[in-house]
Amino acid sequence: MSSIFIFPGQGSQTVGMGKELFDNHTAARAVFDEVDDALNQKLSKIIFEGPMEELTMTANVQPAIFTVSAAMLAVYAHENMDKGIIEPKYVAGHSLGEYSALYYAGAMTLADTAKLLRLRGDSMQRAVPVGTGAMAVVMGLSIDVLAAVCKDAESQIPGVCDIANDNAPGQIVISGSNTTILRAMELAKDAGAKRAMLLPLSVPPHSRLMAPVADDMREALSKIDMKSPSVPLISNKTCAPMTDVNEIKEALVYQITHGVRWRETVLALPALGITETVEIGPGSILTGLTDRIVPEMTARKLEI
User: Fold this and answer.
1) pLDDT tens digits for range 30-42
2) Separation between Cα atoms, residue 246 and residue 226, nearest integer Å
3) Orientation of helix 245-257 relative to helix 97-104, angle to 10°
């Protein structure tokens, strides 16, 4: 099979994720220890013991999910050293998962990736005062209809309402100003949405409200010695392969204020010769989305 490695984003976290790997594999312990040192914080303790409220803080959860993905990769590589490992044709990631994908492809070091994600999370938390931003998932509407709903909501309740994640047919996330998002949820139900539900996030990622974060990330990425990835990244920005370092850095900045085009990314895979997605990280959200978007494609978690 021709494979792509895919890496999850925020929302896949659970307290205790990666603990079994840490307890049983030296390769995993080395990853957790290096991230703790890089961040000058016992992030591993928060990952393993919680509480959930602390783990889900934006500044913690982003490097945490990456760390578990990196630990899984380290164990997989070590355990299969003599057996041969899967060599993906491409990599992709959902939002922060792009950073995990680029780490796998050798574009960034473990420490640099963890530090970038800590900065990304800190900056997101600073950009929008708690309680003024919101994110909601809307089920059962097309992206065109929901985009029109967002415009209507903004005209009625001044603020921001953007498409944040186009996850799968009929599953779209909107992000922006609290009161505008609440109005959009009402309008979405009027337009025929099966469900509209607020998500437990303290920041509204992938919206125009994140403009200060984009500036911070542009500056931080300019200081990183990024290498061309060993396998192309299918970008959230273009849904097409990228290997140029400058283009990748710009795409990482772009994704801060623009939506994740995950449905389109997965739809593009068969034309690239991909027959299998392999999810690496906590949870199996992306595996489920692949099944919904392209049912004929094999979708599975990495076997360790």
Assistant:
1) 999 999 999 999 9
2) 9
3) 160
Give the 3-state secondary structure of residue 71. Answer: helix
Q: Of all helices (H) and strands (E), which one includes residue 23? A: helix 19-24
Q: Which residues belong to the active site?
A: 95, 206
Residues 6 or more apart from 149 whose CB is under 8 A from it? 141, 184, 187, 188, 191
Helix (H, G, I), strand (E, B) or coil at 172: strand
Read off the pTM.
0.96
- Return d(Cα 132, Cα 217) in angstroms, integer: 22
Buried b (16+ CB within 10 A) or exposed e, 9-25: bbbbbeeebbbebbeeb
- The candidate with the shortest Cα–Cα distance to 39, out of 54, 55, 56, 59, is 59
C-alpha 200: how far from chain center: 16
pLDDT digits (tens, 9 = 90+) for 4-18: 999 999 999 999 999
Phi, psi of 201 (to 5 degrees): -120, 145
Give residue 26's Cα distance to chain centre.
27
**Structure token digits, residue 249:** 């850095």
Q: How far apart are CA 286 and CA 21, in angstroms?
A: 21
Residue with tokens 């961040």: 39
Provide the token pair at 254.
Answer: 């772009």
What does the DSSP 8-state code read for residue 263? H
SS (H, E, C) 27-50: HHHHHHHHHHHHHCCCHHHHHHHC
Spell out where the chain has E strands: 3-7, 90-93, 133-139, 161-168, 171-177, 195-198, 233-234, 241-242, 276-279, 298-301
- pLDDT of residue 52 exceeding 80, the answer is yes
